[in-house]
Amino acid sequence: MTKRQKRPSDELSDEQLLEMYYYMVLSRKLDERMWILNRQGKASFHISGIGHEAIQVAQGFAMRKGHDWYFPHYRDIATCLILGVTPRHMMLALMGKEGDIFSRGRQMPEHFSYKPAKIVSVSSPVATAIPQAAGTALASKLQGKDEVTIVGFGEGATSEGDFHEGLNWAGIHKLPIVFVCQNNQYAISVHVSKQMAVENVADRAVAYGIRGVVVDGNDVLASYDVMKEAIDRARRGEGPTLVEAKTYRPVPHSTADDDRSYRSREEVEAWKKRDPILLFEKVLMERGLLDEAKKQEVLDRVMAEVDDAVDYALNQPYPPIESAAEGVFGDSPLVKWSKKGTING
Amino acid sequence: MAIKTNLQAVRDTLMEIMERYDNVVVMGEDVGPRGGVFQATRGLYDRFGPDRVIDTPLAELSIVAVAIGMALNGYHPIAEIQFADFIFPAFNQIVNEAARYRYRSNGAWPVPLIIRAPYGGGVSGGLYHSQSVEAFFTHVPGLYVLAPSTPKDIVGLLRAAVQVPDPVLFFEHKRLYGLVKGEVPDDYYEIRLGEADIKRRGDDITVVAYGLALHEAIKAADKLSEQEGIEAEIIDLRSLVPLDLDTIYESLRKTGKILIVHEDNQTGGWGAEIAARIAEEMFDWLDAPVMRLGGPDVPAVPYAPPLERWFLPLADKIAGKMRELAEY
Ligand SMILES: Cc1ncc(C[n+]2csc(CCOP(=O)(O)OP(=O)(O)O)c2C)c(N)n1
Ligand SMILES: [Mg+2]
User: Fold this and answer.
1) Confidence check: pLDDT of B257 > 50
2) Total domain count for chain B?
């Protein structure tokens, strides 16, 4: 019998494993409630992380919280929760309420931003963050800091020039960065086969002289192993990795999408059997860490947090209208704004 | 008082800024040992090395994107776009990212950086080495847009630009790099963004300009003064955003007549905004319609010398407009 190689996830304590599970469930339940709030007319939009929780939790646990730089994919609710964003913050952003820490009601939901956790502000154009992440990584390297930059995106985003330019920089300067592609096989309705002629997104790494790794993005421990190794390597100065987490989005692209036009119900149902939470529950049960009672306990805790967040956010005001005109530029004694009018002067 | 060309002013000020601020890096195509295709960064690489003078891949999108990332992480990058004509691959990063970061994060993530770009015609650069691109950016809240045209102004504005906590587009007219020489005071000074400068005094008409058009307007004004007794007041905007409407309006209250000249296409050029503001706020003071002289509305500056001259806002053309305005 060959001895199984030691994996980074072997180091995770029972408490950590259960914490990972808790975050997966918390993210899922928050997310489900967001869909409901949208259908109830209480939130104009939501873009979901359902089905992607394994890779998201894995990367959150593999990062050094508040030390590493993180440019999230817009589906990364679970990762942001791990890094310190609260369910209340998520709900405030969902509804565009005062107290939204991401943007004070300026951006659509899931455009995360939280400076204390080094969560860099997400914008809507896909892939723009990828070369920017090369910039934070270059800055870390030049300053001799042992920070790693992690940047997330979907497989559709890898068709943008930004992706290729970002990887090129990372390869040239051997940057401390991990590119994390959550390949859910669709960019809205467009199948990955119409996005690229290579089999794996990770195959593209070779063109830039960097490591590419494919992992089952629905397996939280396998994803953790790959993320931990990639981040550790980057921190040790061994260069960047492009991680491709294969996963699936069992819900429409966003609350504005209807996925029945572009894929079969059979396909979706088949993937639901590989739900990352179900898969992890099986592992935890096998290890004797989870049973039905414990599951219920986690669920009760999570639902209380979700209810609290929703109640809280529903009862907050919107930001004052005047706030929308503020903060275009920072204050500077070296800038003179003309007294006349407001536009540009 | 030293006499410098515009190019020397850029180069010396970059050197000075890099000495003064450890967190400033210069990055762009050929900015390293080659010193830039216009030599604006000559000497920087030898003095500061590859960690602070970064030869980038030939990829404008990521020159700006990487600069944004560095700005998020403690640096104040000065990125060079080799020719303004090639800034468009970076348009999304400038407009959707750099300009919006502060606002979209409610102030949490400002992006302090400078993007330098040589622009403008008069160098036989044809369609793709002559463009004026400023109006694409003056339209965008969140960007400062500067276009200084003399050595003194370049020095003072660059010194200030590197201290403001937001993105600055710093346009340098490439025809003027070696053409314009001027005095640069020895004592340290800065010029605030948003302050225009009256480059010539006059009571009859007001002319607003920047770049090559500014110098041509001064030439035209001197000639008209000598030959026809028309005295034009020439305002050098220096800063397009913020726009110094105070200075423009003050002059207009005196002259009642205004001409706006720029090399950028007339339609939708920055002059259109200035004209609109005057129409809204200064109508009572006008003794003549607001006049504009911008580049002809063809896609860009043509190559053959007579065609190029046809495009550019040269002194004779400006003088014609000035006369028309004075006589109105
Ligand atoms: C530059 C740009 N083009 C188009 C869009 C509209 N859009 C939003 S998400 C999306 C699909 C993205 O797919 P992928 O990168 O695979 O990420 P996923 O949503 O599947 O996680 C599109 C086309 C956009 N946001 N940005
Ligand atoms: Mg996708």
Assistant:
1) yes
2) 2
Last-in-domain residue among B184, B208, B230: B184
Compute φ and ψ for B204, nearest 5 degrees: -90, -50
Q: For the domain with range A24-256+288-314, which CATH number is right: 3.40.50.970, 3.10.450.10, 3.40.80.10, 3.30.70.260? A: 3.40.50.970
User: A69-100, pLDDT tens digit by residue?
Assistant: 999 999 999 999 999 999 999 999 999 999 99
In which residue are the tokens 């002013």 written? B9
Q: Does B101 touch chain A (CB under 8 A)?
A: yes
Q: Residue B242: is the preceding peptide bond cis (ω within 30°)?
A: yes
Same domain, B20 and B159: yes
Residue B146 resides in a domain: yes
Task: Name the B residues in 171-230 with CB < 8 Å from any A CB.
Answer: 190, 192-195
| Predicted pLDDT of residue A339 | 66
* Residue appearing with tokens 């119409």: A194
Whole-number Å distance between alpha carbons of A241 and A149: 11
Name the residue ranges covered by the structural domains of chain A: 24-256+288-314
Interchain CB contacts (distance < 8 Å): A and B? 180
A48 close to A76: Cβ distance less than 8 angstroms: no
Centroid of ligand 2 to alpha carbon of A200 (angstroms)? 13
Asked if residue A108 lies in contact with residue A116, where contact means CB atoms within 8 angstroms, the answer is: no
Q: pLDDT tens-digit profile of B138-154? A: 999 999 999 999 999 99
Q: Does B109 touch chain A (CB under 8 A)?
A: yes
Domain of B96, CATH number, reads: 3.40.50.970
Please give the residue range of the domain that contains residue B285.
Answer: 197-326
Ligand 1 center–CA A203 separation, angstroms: 21
Nearest CA to ligand 1 atom 19: A187
Q: What angle do CA A121, A122, A128 make, to 5 degrees?
A: 115
Residues with CB under 6 A from ligand 1: A 75, 124-126, 153-157, 182, 184, 186-188, 253
Choosing from B184, B207, B227, the residue where a domain stops is B184
Residue B3 burial by CB count (10 A; 0-12/13-18/19+): exposed, middle or buried?
exposed
Q: Flag if B69 and A136 touch (Cβ within 8 Å).
A: yes
